[in-house]
Specification:
By secondary structure, the protein is of the alpha/beta class. The chain folds into 2 domains: 125 residues, 3-Layer(aba) Sandwich (Rossmann fold), CATH 3.40.50; 159 residues, 2-Layer Sandwich (Dihydrodipicolinate Reductase, domain 2), CATH 3.30.360.10. It has 12 helices and 15 strands. Helix 1 links the parallel strand 1 and strand 2. It is globular and about 60 Å long. The structure holds NADP nicotinamide-adenine-dinucleotide phosphate. The site of NADP nicotinamide-adenine-dinucleotide phosphate has 30 residues, from helix 1 and helix 12.
Length: 335
């Protein structure tokens, strides 16, 4: 049994990590921490875990955490992870960070979009971007995994194969997310009365996930390019739905496009490409799947991608990365 800890266990992604890890046959949760809800049994904070997990949720103490486990998930806000990860890495522990702190190769881009200078450039260089469909071999050898953002996961999976084959141009990603994407400590914009029966657009030209999408797509395709990315807030608990509008750079029939997707994802346990029809959010909620579908009309292509932001967009993908890293079956604990 591999001993694992969840730092930031009471957040939305932390709670989801705990739920999934309890059911995983190869690991045992040995450490949980939070900032405000501390010193209490985890099953008292979240009664759904009664009888399933008897562990106190601690106030983070790095030394006792270090003695308790082999691998740590950091489900922390950005700016906090890079203060904590170095202690674990120094003691040769494995770290899977769910925040944005280790996702960018370039600390200047990080500073521009997260408004703070990066404080752990040494480990930033060693971090591996944890998108298994494109970085599986690197993930196997990583000690620090930067788990991708939720919008980037579905955006990159939706377009990377076609971009790499030089098939897409003039790309616009119209993205919509459920409210859990914003974390558990809600503020006014996430008040029920404001959200219910409402739909809002936010950060249309400056969302912090745009540079992440561009950096990873450039690394995957070996080309620099641009695209438009516009996020919206849906009055739903969870889920991300993206619609990609683009033009085909060459004349292709539907079946040829399907073949391209198939050549990338046929063996992937968590990407399902629809031969006909478009995917729906409901079919992926509670799962680690990313479902993709597309329609073609002349030289226009529309692609739809859906994921559960808390699973394939965060905690499920983190466990998929852990499985690869530790040599478990990739879908262990996620089926
Ligand atoms: N939500 C999503 O859909 C999603 C998807 C992909 C990635 N992410 C990323 O994953 C990370 C966690 O997201 P989340 O939605 O789970 O956030 P969250 O709900 O706000 O939870 C954050 C957790 O970190 C703890 N924490 C906050 N500040 C801390 C500090 N200074 N020291 C120790 N613990 C601290 C919190 O404890 P208290 O509650 O006690 O303060 C809580 O347990 C974020 O970086 C987020 O960007 C989130």
């Amino acid at each position: 049994m591999v001993k694992v800890g969840v730092i930031g266990a009471t957040g939305f992604t932390g709670e989801e990590l705990v739920r999934l890890l309890i059911a995983h046959p190869g690991v045992k949760i040995t450490y949980l921490s939070a900032k405000l809800d501390k010193g209490l049994p985890f099953s008292e904070i979240f009664p759904k875990f009664k009888g399933k997990l008897e562990l106190i949720c601690e106030s983070l103490d790095v030394n006792s955490a270090l003695n308790s486990g082999d691998l740590f998930f950091l489900a922390l806000p950005h700016r906090v992870s890079f203060q904590i990860a170095p202690f674990f890495l120094e003691k040769k522990k494995l770290v899977i960070d769910l925040s944005a702190d280790y996702r960018f190769k370039d600390p200047i881009v990080y500073k521009k979009f997260y408004k703070i200078a990066h404080q752990d450039k040494k480990n930033l260089k060693k971090a591996v971007y944890g998108l298994p469909e494109f970085y599986r071999e690197k993930i196997k050898r990583a000690r620090l995994i930067a788990n991708p953002g939720c919008y980037p996961t579905v955006s990159i999976l939706s377009i990377a194969p076609l971009l790499r084959e030089g098939v897409l141009k003039n790309i616009v990603i119209d993205a919509k997310s459920g409210v859990s994407g914003a974390g558990r400590r809600a503020y006014l914009d996430f008040h029920y009365v404001h959200l219910s029966q409402n739909l809002t657009c936010y950060k249309p030209f400056g969302h912090q996930h745009l540079p992440e999408i561009l950096e990873v797509l450039s690394a995957i395709t070996g080309k620099k390019f641009n695209l438009r990315f516009t996020p919206h807030l849906l009055p739903l608990e969870r889920g991300i739905f993206i619609t990609v509008y683009a033009q085909l750079a060459k004349k292709l029939r539907r079946v040829q496009i399907y073949k391209i997707y198939k050549s990338y994802y046929e063996e992937e346990p968590f990407v399902r490409v629809f031969k006909e029809g478009l995917p729906q959010l409901k079919e992926v909620i509670g799962t680690n799947f990313c479902d993709l579908g597309f329609e073609v009309s002349g030289d226009n292509i529309l692609i739809v991608g859906v994921i559960d932001n808390l699973i394939k967009g965060a905690s499920g993908q983190a466990i998929q990365n852990m499985n690869i890293l530790l040599g478990f079956k990739e879908s262990e604990g996620l089926e």
